[in-house]
Specification:
Structural class: alpha+beta
Helix content: 10-25%
Largest sheet: 11 strands, antiparallel
Order of helices and strands: HEEEEEHEEEEEEEEEEEEHEEEEEEH
Radius of gyration: 28 Å
Number of helices: 4
Strand content: 35-45%
Length: about 325
């Protein structure tokens, strides 16, 4: 009899413990807390600003946890943060302070309001960030906005999701800073304009292209080598050109005129169009006999450059080509 009583007590205790654990799990599962949307590194990097627009909009996103929407509103208020940007720089660059990520200066963005409400029945709210004049910032620097939840003016929130780094990417029709974009040299020539040594080279490598403004990009001149990117600042300033894309040509609606200018200290002279090196940006559609089409973006350039005033010029006849999918760009 005594053993039966003990056994019954053990069964009852187990049942109560299981019920409590189940209740705690359900409470946690259905608990609604405000958090700022980010990845595992507390960075939100899914948005890209369009340089072709005078002003573009990205968002800080406050989301509600739990498997069920709440039946009440959740108030959200944000404020400036600084702990994540410090941690990011320390973790990624340590003492290389010249490579540190930067907070986007205020003149390049506006946030009309840092207060928002997640309405009852909804799971998130977007706080708009209006970006402008991003063509003025370097494509070689990393920019963030660092914001955190204001604990005094926000309903229940998740301490692990209280702060976020909003990554600032920019793009135009020709390139983006979200990923590395390379154009391939094809049918290209670099000729040293030296009567004593008229060396001709045929580059077959790639040229990394960076967006500057809505209609312009930066690339290395001729077959100059960018080298390791993290130590390339001086080479970029000394050896880069700017290609600005303008209006359609009269002869071909798929081609646009380009203008070639120095990025920094390089001496560059745009030359008269020569055969297919006609100083244009071309959407080149190549069709096969069975009807398949391959689409390319192409820079067709003719210019000369030199890095020092005492150097002979190098003449460049270049076709820089990148395959792309029109459908994918519409997504």
């Amino acid at each position: 009899m005594k053993n039966n009583i003990i056994l019954a007590c053990l069964v009852l205790g187990f049942a109560l413990t299981t019920a409590c654990e189940s209740y705690d799990f359900e409470q946690e599962q259905y608990k609604n807390e405000v958090g700022l949307l980010s990845n595992s590194q507390m960075i939100y990097d899914r948005q890209v600003a369009d340089l072709s627009k005078d002003t573009d909009t990205i968002y800080l996103v406050a989301a509600l946890s739990g498997t069920r929407p709440s039946d009440q509103d959740f108030k959200v208020t944000l404020m400036r943060g600084d702990s994540l940007i410090k941690a990011y720089n320390k973790s990624n660059f340590d003492i290389e302070t010249n490579r540190y990520a930067r907070i986007l200066p205020e003149r390049y963005f506006t946030i009309p309001s840092l207060e928002a409400v997640i309405p009852a029945g909804e799971m998130q709210v977007k706080i708009p960030v209006y970006l402008r004049n991003l063509g003025e910032i370097s494509p070689d620097s990393i920019y963030f906005l660092d914001y955190q939840i204001d604990p005094l003016n926000t309903d229940e929130y998740n301490l692990k999701k209280k702060e976020v780094l909003l990554r600032i990417y920019k793009s135009n029709e020709f390139s983006t800073t979200r990923r590395n974009v390379y154009y391939n040299y094809t049918s290209s020539f670099v000729t040293l304009l030296d009567l004593n040594n008229p060396l001709v080279r045929r580059p077959t490598s790639t040229n990394q292209v960076f967006p500057l403004a809505g209609n312009s990009v930066r690339m290395m001149a001729g077959d100059e080598n960018l080298g390791e990117y993290k130590t390339a600042l001086n080479r970029i300033n000394e050896r880069s050109i700017v290609v600005a894309i303008g209006k359609q040509t009269v002869k071909n609606p798929l081609a646009r005129e380009v203008t070639i200018t120095p990025y920094k200290s390089i001496d560059v002279v745009q030359l008269t169009p020569f055969e297919m090196y006609d100083n244009t940006f071309l959407i080149n559609i190549i069709s096969t006999p069975d009807g398949r089409r391959t689409y390319y973006k192409e820079f067709r350039l003719h210019y000369k450059y030199r890095l020092k005033s005492t150097d002979p010029y190098k003449e460049v006849k270049a076709i820089l080509r990148m395959e792309y999918s029109p459908r994918a760009e519409l997504l």
